[in-house]
Amino acid sequence: MATTTLAPRAGTYRRSMVYEWLTTTDHKKIGALYIATSFLFFLLGGVYALFIRAELAVPGLQFLDPETYNQLFTIHGTTMIFLFVMPMTTGLANYIVPLQIGAADMAFPRINALSYWMIPLGGLLLFSGYALGGAANAGWTGYAPLSAREGIGIDLWIASLVLLGTSSILGAINFLATIFKMRAPGLTLMRMPLFVWNTLVTSVLLLFAVPVLTAGLMMLFIDRNYGGGFFDPALGGNPILWQHIFWFFGHPEVYILILPAFGVVSEVLPVFSRKPLFGYKAFVFATASIGALGFSVWAHHMFTTGAVYLPFFSFFTFLIAVPTGIKIFNWLATMWGGKLRLSTPMLFAMGFIALFLIGGLDGAFLAVVPFDFHVQDTYWVVSHLHYVLVAGSVFGIFAALYYWFPKMTGGLLDERLGKIHWVLLFIGTNLAFFPQHLLGLDGMIRRIIDYAPNAGWMELNLLSTIGAFMIGVSTLPFMWNVFITLRGPRDAGDDPWDANTLEWATTSPPPPYNFEALPPIRSERPLFDLKHGAVEDRAASTPAARGETHGETRADAPEEVLGEPIEGHDDDGGTPGATPQVSEHAPDATPRDERPERSEARDDPRRPEDRP
Amino acid sequence: MTAHTDVVRVPHQQEDPHEATGHAEQGMNTALLGMLLFIGSEVMFFAGLFAAYFNARAAAPEWPPQGIDFIVPSLIPVVATLILILSSATMQWAVWRIRKGDRTGMNRAIAITLLLGVVFLGMQAYDYYELLTHHGFGINSGIYGTLFYTLTGFHGAHVFGGVVGISIILLRGVAGQFSARHHIAVEAVSAYWHFVDVVWIALFVTLYLLH
Amino acid sequence: MPLAGVRLAPTKRTIFWLLTAALLVAACTVAPDTGGATGGGHSDPNPPGFFPTDPATAQGGLIAGLYPIVFFIAVAVFVLVEGLLLLIVFRFRRRPGDDTLPEQTHGSNLLEVIWTAIPAAIVTGLFVLTMGTLSEVEALEDSPAVEIDVTGFQWQWTFQYPNEDLSLTGLGREGPVMGIPINETVRLRLHAQDVIHSFYVPQFLYKKDVVPGRVNEFDVLVQEPGTYVGQCAEFCGLAHADMYFTVQAMERPDYEAWVTEQQQGSGEATPPPGAAALTLTSVDINTFDPETLSAPADAPIVFDFRNVDPAAPHNVAIVGANEDGSDWIGLPLAQAGQNATYTAPALEAGTYEFYCSVHPATMRGTLTVGTR
Are C236 and C281 contained in the same domain? Predict the structure, then answer.
């Protein structure tokens, strides 16, 4: 029988790469665009930080003037949050979430593309202030009435944030629709990878928090340009209103920044410990609690205003430490008893735990209201926020980049360079930010270009500056690593880390449609199950009965194979799953004819009502 | 892992006439879910604006402030409210019609909805004109003016967005594009329109009744 | 399946121990029982440490008493978790060539309960302690001994003592000096003119925001005489870093002497005979009208000062006009829309710069003092 091949018609097959990338709606390409763009903004925001730290290294004005300095820290904060961490985590989720749930793409691919393109545009708006009379200079928190009075940079800052916020809202809608509607059969909610769960909760937070910021930004714009009185007491307004609205967004925002990193750590630890995640249900519960509680603590940023009900916010701020602690202990328990492979992704994940802890603890101090009276607006807060964002989010992001780089490109990043990167970043982070605790305790306030020469603060500031430059230097081995790996052979293979989840069950990089075929999904480690024989290659897949959906627990899902229970998490008692059955292909496996009888009906693909 | 991996088949499902598509899928249509999530985010946007209102009201010694005694449920706002509520009814009627396959009935109902929506916008514009010229009451007339125009203004912008959406489904409906099994855009626009109406009712009660 | 990575175990081990050692050394060198630093124009006896700067007030003492409890709990948690982490790295590293799976434990309800309940109990305890300390710190006396109205504006502080008829302001690293008696309750009321500021004295371990449209108030009881530097702690624009003030706490008799001295320095009575009269208007934060003035030499200058700016306070000051060479500053400030009368000392012939001490960078002019 003759076979036909479709020959591409001349002139229609080749599209320019530029056009391809500009118009793509493929979640993998969009994810890559997000990642690359946000990394550039990371470098830019980092350079800003180096300028700031260079000025502060010793007392006295070195090379900056106050106006420039105020613009520097404003743009640094805004860039790192809205143009680096948020798009980077969105990009990682964009690439990985559809793969991890066995989908072919996101729910709304064109809106996905739109969401991406709003990022460079938003960045352009933010930085255009330099060309138009001065960039924003009221801090990334833009407190009124100061922000209502400053120059055009603030209007551009407002426009930029409205655009970037809209990008996030659209992304959140996309992720929620994708996660709820496009999971592969068998992938129940309680079998989703933790990275997907964290993306889900992050998206809920974005959906409910960002619009409030947008409302506040609109109010500020009206005050600035139309004589509005929202924040002007002379017109009956209230400056504290800005803080309430901003922080109602701003606090969930910090969880938006950290939850994806939590998700990455929860992916990396089990793979490199060769054990399942300890306490999967506890993680889900803790993540959801953090998300919900995150909306109840916003005024702990406002303790010194004299305008908030202190006991309520102090209590919930203390409370939110509990689910975070649950996570840390469960991560430790995941590693305990494992067989750890200390590859670069694992180092970053462990470094995350080691250092995020410090940020969490010094945040707990801030819940002690009278102590907050002392250290609010000092370098204690600067230290805290940088521990959770750099030691937290940045470490989590690098763990993700090292972990998923081979999947995205087919090339495995060099381990040696990765370890050099890790050492420099680990030491640099601590050097840069730990001394700032002491500065804050001593009363050094933040957002100042200079400090008193006889306050005894020079040594610690100098240390901090050295640490900051070390962080800067640490990006060099990483970038070199990416460069040489991309030029080298792309031979990582489908599953270089011997991992557990679906994204490793396809090629590296995946084909445009993501999967040729999916393995059967019976637990939160479908690939692990397949490799270790907990499911058969040709697992009996009884079709769903009428009225069943992808999204609900399948009542007919086989609970056992060959007489042994399948490991999974359906046991509410928390009993650990059974040791996986040795695959029949293993050299010491029980020969097939000695295995217990299997019902033939199991292998019949026809619907029950269609069978004889 | 052997070369052949079994693929789990998607089950074939009996069609549910209440589903807006004929596809064999479970649960809510994805596009409709997207619209509902979007509406959720818009609810939070208005929540921020309402929070500003109640914050100002709670702190003010007198509310409305001295001299602002003309934001009352007079003819124009009351009629506008009734028109918007009626338009939600006609919008829903349109949805029911197309679920039964009656595209003509749907088109008629959508056209009436569109008309009512435009009338609402016209009445709002006239109300603004009256306030500005007869009372000198603008967005810069203190916190009360700022709140009034910001809240009703953003609501009006959302109504305008809804009017655009209704126009699109009207054009598509007249072009013959919808059926009992495929009319998800009508469901989505309808959900959005009801949201716009609910926000107005909250606004009307807050601005005009809650004194 | 290739397993990634060059094993770098000995180097990693070395790094971990080096880091631990470094942190311990740092902790020892910045000895925990010293805190306390001053900024401003005073030398610092104690370097920054792991404990807050030594408190000078009763309220600060309460805060400093709560801190060690929180600190040691935090250290305990830190040592526990980091210790476990280090233990895990050394004990559960995969041995080369070992490709078997470890036991695949999924969870333990008991452990979940334990590590939920214990942290919950700890934070509840901390919350209770926090609330107790808070109510004491924020308590207001029925009749404070001294009352001071503090006004913060871009980028300066003014202190007004309503019962003493005193008004003080100043710029520079010292800023205005607020004299107060020790061991007596001082009530501070905070007023803002333009944007949000914050009144912070590190050695009081306390700050409170200065918010337009709102008057915040709090009490301090200073127990140690001394000079305490304060700074605006809420970012307020261009010269936020320069918005200093000083609190000088002294024994009651010294305080009364200080008050008398300040009263003689400020507040003008009738203009001296033979004075020259000038009219000066402040239009906005960038503009005087006129920007050039002239006056006769050797006669005091009386300014009929009109502040027509609806949004900010202003005044006039003259560089180097005082006998000791310091700037003469007209006080008290003329509030928005208000007028004021200032009498500057007699000047020798020459050219002087005048400025608004509230907006010294943007409001400047030239005063030509000519020979008679």
Answer: no
| Active-site residue, selected from the candidate residues A37, A90, A115, A168 | A168
Q: Is A140 a catalytic residue?
A: yes
Percent of chain A with pLDDT over 90: 83
C287-289/C317-318 β-pairing:
unpaired
SS in 3 state form for A261-326? HHHHHHHHHHHHHCCCCCCHHHHHHHHHHHHHHCCCCHHHHCHHHCCCCHHHHHHHHHHCHHHHHH
Q: Which of A26, A55, A105, A223 is catalytic?
A: A105
Q: How far is A198 from chain B (nearest CA, A)?
A: 18
Instruction: Please state the domain count of chain C.
Output: 2
Catalytic one among A90, A266, A378, A393?
A266
The order of strands in the sheet holding C350-355 is C292-296, C364-370, C350-355, C317-318, C328-329
Chains A and B: how many Cβ contacts under 8 Å?
156
Would the CB atoms of A172 and B41 count as touching at under 8 Å? yes
Q: Give CA–CA dist A129/A148, Å, rounded.
A: 16
Q: What is the pLDDT of residue C53?
A: 87
Tell me whether residue A274 is one of the annotated catalytic residues.
Answer: no
Q: What is the DSSP letter of A500?
A: -
Nearest to A296 by CA among A308, A285, A281: A308
Query: What domains appear along chain A, each with residue ranges and CATH number?
Result: 31-487 (1.20.210.10), 517-612 (no CATH)
Give the Cα separation of A538 and A522 in Å (integer).
13
In a domain, B4, yes or no: no
Final residue of a structural domain among C243, C267, C291: C267
The predicted model scores a pTM of: 0.83
In this structure, of A49-63, A261-275, A587-601, C119-133, the range with the lowest mean pLDDT score is: A587-601
Distance CA C340, CA C334 (A): 6
Q: Higher pLDDT residue, A533 or A258?
A: A258
Among B21-25, B193-197, C295-299, the least confident range: B21-25
Q: Using a CB-CB distance cutoff of 8 angstroms, which residues of chain B are in contact with residue A537? A: 1-2, 4-6
Model confidence at A573, pLDDT cuts 50, 70, 90, reads very low
Closest by CA to A202, choosing from A277, A314, A93, A98, is A93
Instruction: List the domain range (segments joined by +) for residue B77.
Output: 30-59+72-209
On whether both C222 and C316 belong to a single domain, the answer is no
What's the pLDDT at B17? 41
- In sign, the C-alpha dihedral spanning B98, B104, B109, B115 is positive
Q: Is residue B1 part of a domain?
A: no
Closest residue to A233, CB basis, from C38, C203, C212: C212
| Whether C121 and C241 share a structural domain | yes
Range scoring the smallest mean pLDDT among A396-400, A502-506, B207-211: B207-211
CA distance A303 to A315: 13
Say if the Cβ atoms of C1 and A455 lie within 8 Å: no
Nearest by Cα to C92 from A332, A58, A492: A332
Collapse the DSSP code of A609 into the 3-class scheme (helix H, G, I; strand E, B; otherwise coil) and give the result.
Answer: helix
- Whether residue B39 is contained in a domain is answered as yes
Sequence-ordered list of residues with C-beta below 8 angstroms from that of A221, at least 6 positions apart, any chain = A155, A158
Q: Which domain holds residue C359?
A: 276-370
Collapsed DSSP state (helix, strand, coil) of residue A424 = helix
Domain count, chain B: 1
The proportion of chain A whose per-residue pLDDT surpasses 70, expressed as a percent, equals 85
What is the reported pLDDT for B48?
A: 97
For B94, the enclosing helix (H) or strand (E) is helix B75-99
Question: Are C337 and C255 found together in one domain?
Answer: no
Residues C352 and C220 in one domain: no
CATH number for the domain harbouring residue B153: 1.20.120.80
Outline where DSSP puts E strands in B169-208.
none
Which tens digits make up the pLDDT trace of A59-104?
999 999 999 999 999 999 999 999 999 999 999 999 999 999 999 9
Domain boundary among C235, C267, C299: C267
